[in-house]
Amino acid sequence: xxxxxxVDAGGTASRAVVAxxxxxxxxxxxxxPGNPCxxxxxxxxxxxxxxxxxxxGLDPAAVVAGVLxxxxxxxxxxxxxxxxxxxxxxxxxxxxxxxxxxxxxTAFAAGTRAPSGAVLIAGTGAVAASIHNHHPVRVSDGLGWxxxxxxxxxxxxxxxxRAAVRSWPSPFATAVAGAVGxxxxxxxxxxxxxxxxxxxxxxxxxxxAQARAGDPHAAAIVAExxxxxxxxxxxxxxxxxxxxLAGSLLTHDTPVRDGLSAVLAGRGVSAxxxxxxxxxxxxxxxxxxxxxxxxxxxxxxALQHHH
Length: 307
What we know:
With 307 residues, the chain is α/β, with parallel strands linked by helices. Helices cover 47% and strands 20% of the residues. It is globular and about 60 Å long.
């Protein structure tokens, strides 16, 4: 039995899928954050740990190819990093070649088997990319929380904190304070100075829920996020194929997704929803081996929604 491994690694977690060439998932694994730009060498450990777990009870020698879809894939431009990863990959018993692609490529492939189009990811961060033959040819945003990631989960969290300290003691401010576990405005300011990034991004669901409930502060933040994400997509130019929405803010039922879908629908663009990017990575690994049979494997694999 010939197998392929696909990995989806981002700022929050690393997920791996092992599949047969027919598109049957035979193993899954997960580990910690796998974005090398944020986690450094620890990302190598996480990515390989996820692959090891997915291979549990399977023969690593049966794996014929791997694709790693990474946020921060540029880390592999550094020969020392590449060598360290190769060593960890081999220590996991994997002797097959692997290809590193940006997370935009796997997110796009998780929504369509078309080779070209556009993808917008809004999760912890935010980035859009034009994809041509499964390669990103133009990228917009993805600049990290300090310089960009406009409309992302982290952006929503920062905006929530800003609105809370400015509108204290509004009902919205009280809700944000409760979510971060502080009693007052000054404590919230101190809490934010520590830059607990995961917890800041973790405020996004609260903003979405408050916006759904009609809170004016939250509604304004969501409307601005939609405007910024639309601008990020528009920066790519007209899409040359399907548009895929990816990342937790755009694949789950959120007011951000609703707003963006409405904007796109108004332009006659019906956006596709990204499925499981780790399974899509496995499909990308299988594609060169499968040739014409790749379409059937995509139907089996990439469109699985695995949360």
